[in-house]
# Entry
Amino acid sequence: MNSAPDDRTDGHTITALGLTAMCLVTFDHEALGHGGACLAIGGHIEVLSSAIFRCNVRSVLIDPAGPLANVLGGSLAVVMAKWIPRRLLATRLLLILVAAFSLFWESGYLIKAMLDRHGDLYFAAEDLLGEPSAWWRMAGTGVGTFLYVMTARWVSRALTELFPRGRAARSVARIAWTAATLGAAFAAIFNLGHGWVGFRDGVLEIGAASVPLLFLAALSDSAPLAASPTPIRRNGVVIGLSLGLYAIFVATLGRGLYL
# Structure
């Protein structure tokens, strides 16, 4: 991950931003979403990790809370990315990555849940509607597909606004995707109780769900450079904060909290 997207943008800083986005999105889904719903109804969190959540009480609010938190967080990131000044390139890129990982995760998860008849969103539909009919599952699959395609289009456009040369935009996306996927998988190894589940879910929810990042931003390298902002230079503060956040992530959600 030392290779940079061009001779001016620093790959280490892109790696740090990818790791940070993964940590924020996973925390948003598991802790703020599922955990917040559990506490809001007066429950007690029994297990909280990057892949497993258990509350001591059952409620129709808990299952959809994780996906809803990511959809809201991803949507907020989309809005914020639009208003952040272009000179704050690293901040805008972080917001784009948070939006990408959040919305790819939940739209892909909705498609998979409706097809497999399993997962938070399927269980939420089952709680609210009873056994979902084929029509409800088809509707859910359609909504998920629409959101997934719209996310792909937005992320591609957002990246190429920051990096008008297609080669640079693709390289940034691939470095960030690799860092986030490997980071999610590696953190789960430390969970002795559910390590395989965390590893699998990290690869699926972060890596497989956001695989369009490997193929987006395919603009021609002949795009005008006048729109290109200052490149992302190596930023020791960003890298240090990211490593610190990731260490906390590994020690908590990666390792798992059994309360």
Observations:
- The chain has one domain: 15-21+75-258.
- Confidence is low (pLDDT under 50) at residues 219-228.
